[in-house]
């Protein structure tokens, strides 16, 4: 039982938390690709920028002496999402919309997004420096340790308060996104435009409005993903830049242009990375009693070292591109 609890702490909880962040980031990327047909590499900076906006709001709450029963980062999250959504609209209007009017190809928009990435990251470093920040400088991060000794385990089940809220908020957001895409007129218009933009325009759909709504949804979800990542680890200027490849891998694995595929891909990549770096000796060590001396398990038995965790996303991405280029949910060909 102790080994199972250790596995749950290190793989299931860790993989679920990581998968939630990847999923929310991948949904924004796949929505933008489905509507505008280009890979938005600056999405990572929307995540980081949104997290810094939430941090500023949380710091303002602390300066004003406002205390909340839950982590302040989650309290200010809706405000930060609105601000980030407005910023994402501004980025589109300032950089991408003029290029689209000139008939720029997707590769041109891709290169422009890389430039936006460097610009936004430079601005963040200019105003905040290169140091790290924490949402819990003025409040404590509660850690829940669930005693399972009655079940024969010597280890407690460990999960932090931000991780609990992260899982709940992600579930609620995914549910809200599902109803938005399937029940609302705008959501149906987005799906129609993702399937065939020309036909959607001929059918009378306001494509300009759909593009604006896409940026609003993508920006809000990026802020949510970035803030939750910062609440789980630490906030720094390259917070999401280092995980943009796994997020893109999640979007491609799920199927580019497919929101549900992005969610599935994010969870798949998250659990795969956690499984790959897990020390399997901790679970399999009871086998040492029956294995011969020359076949004893080493002290550390992981598929890849922790520092190479990002290679897992690359491997899964390459396999999917070779076996099923359209992804699990048959999105646009990668």
UniProtKB/TrEMBL annotation:
<comment type="similarity">
    <text>Belongs to the binding-protein-dependent transport system permease family. LivHM subfamily.</text>
</comment>
<dbReference type="GO" id="GO:1903806">
    <property type="term" value="P:L-isoleucine import across plasma membrane"/>
</dbReference>
<feature type="transmembrane region" description="Helical">
    <location>
        <begin position="239"/>
        <end position="256"/>
    </location>
</feature>
<dbReference type="GO" id="GO:0015808">
    <property type="term" value="P:L-alanine transport"/>
</dbReference>
<dbReference type="GO" id="GO:0005886">
    <property type="term" value="C:plasma membrane"/>
</dbReference>
<dbReference type="GO" id="GO:0015190">
    <property type="term" value="F:L-leucine transmembrane transporter activity"/>
</dbReference>
<dbReference type="GO" id="GO:0015188">
    <property type="term" value="F:L-isoleucine transmembrane transporter activity"/>
</dbReference>
<feature type="transmembrane region" description="Helical">
    <location>
        <begin position="209"/>
        <end position="233"/>
    </location>
</feature>
<keyword id="KW-0812">Transmembrane</keyword>
<feature type="transmembrane region" description="Helical">
    <location>
        <begin position="107"/>
        <end position="128"/>
    </location>
</feature>
<feature type="transmembrane region" description="Helical">
    <location>
        <begin position="163"/>
        <end position="181"/>
    </location>
</feature>
<dbReference type="Pfam" id="PF02653">
    <property type="entry name" value="BPD_transp_2"/>
</dbReference>
<keyword id="KW-1003">Cell membrane</keyword>
<keyword id="KW-0029">Amino-acid transport</keyword>
<keyword id="KW-0472">Membrane</keyword>
<keyword id="KW-0997">Cell inner membrane</keyword>
<keyword id="KW-1133">Transmembrane helix</keyword>
<dbReference type="InterPro" id="IPR001851">
    <property type="entry name" value="ABC_transp_permease"/>
</dbReference>
<keyword id="KW-0813">Transport</keyword>
<dbReference type="InterPro" id="IPR052157">
    <property type="entry name" value="BCAA_transport_permease"/>
</dbReference>
<dbReference type="GO" id="GO:0005304">
    <property type="term" value="F:L-valine transmembrane transporter activity"/>
</dbReference>
<dbReference type="GO" id="GO:0015192">
    <property type="term" value="F:L-phenylalanine transmembrane transporter activity"/>
</dbReference>
<feature type="transmembrane region" description="Helical">
    <location>
        <begin position="48"/>
        <end position="67"/>
    </location>
</feature>
<feature type="transmembrane region" description="Helical">
    <location>
        <begin position="12"/>
        <end position="36"/>
    </location>
</feature>
<feature type="transmembrane region" description="Helical">
    <location>
        <begin position="263"/>
        <end position="282"/>
    </location>
</feature>
<protein>
    <submittedName>
        <fullName>Branched-chain amino acid ABC transporter permease</fullName>
    </submittedName>
</protein>
<dbReference type="GO" id="GO:0042941">
    <property type="term" value="P:D-alanine transmembrane transport"/>
</dbReference>
<feature type="transmembrane region" description="Helical">
    <location>
        <begin position="302"/>
        <end position="323"/>
    </location>
</feature>
<feature type="transmembrane region" description="Helical">
    <location>
        <begin position="73"/>
        <end position="95"/>
    </location>
</feature>
């Amino acid at each position: 039982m102790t080994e199972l609890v250790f596995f749950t702490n290190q793989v299931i909880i860790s993989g679920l938390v990581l998968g939630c962040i990847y999923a929310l980031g991948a949904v924004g990327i796949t929505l933008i690709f489905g509507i505008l047909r280009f890979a938005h590499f600056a999405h990572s900076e929307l995540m980081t920028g949104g997290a810094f906006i939430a941090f500023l709001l949380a710091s303002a709450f602390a300066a004003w002496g406002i205390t909340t029963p839950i982590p302040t980062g989650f309290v200010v999250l809706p405000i930060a999402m609105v601000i980030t959504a407005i910023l994402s609209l501004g980025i589109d209007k300032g950089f991408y919309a003029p290029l689209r009017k000139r008939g720029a190809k997707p590769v041109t928009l891709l290169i422009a997004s890389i430039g936006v990435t460097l610009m936004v990251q430079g601005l963040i470093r200019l105003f905040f420096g290169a140091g790290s920040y924490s949402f819990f400088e003025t409040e404590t991060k509660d850690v829940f340790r669930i005693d399972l000794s009655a079940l024969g385990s010597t280890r407690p089940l460990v999960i932090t308060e931000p991780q609990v809220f992260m899982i709940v908020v992600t579930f609620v957001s995914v549910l809200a996104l599902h109803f938005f895409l399937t029940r609302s007129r705008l959501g149906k218009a987005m799906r129609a435009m993702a399937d065939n933009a020309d036909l959607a325009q001929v059918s009378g759909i306001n494509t300009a409005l759909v593009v604006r709504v896409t940026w609003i949804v993508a920006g809000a979800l990026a802020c949510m993903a970035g803030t939750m990542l910062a609440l789980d680890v630490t906030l720094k200027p390259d917070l999401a830049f280092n995980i943009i490849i796994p997020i893109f891998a999640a979007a491609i694995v799920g199927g580019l242009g497919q929101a549900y595929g992005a969610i599935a891909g994010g969870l798949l990549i998250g659990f795969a990375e956690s499984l790959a770096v897990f020390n399997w000796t901790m679970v399999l060590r009871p086998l040492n009693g029956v294995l011969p001396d020359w076949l004893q398990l080493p002290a550390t038995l992981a598929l890849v070292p922790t520092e190479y965790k990002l290679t897992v996303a690359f491997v899964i991405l390459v396999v999917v591109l070779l076996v099923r280029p359209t992804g699990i949910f048959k999105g646009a060909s990668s």
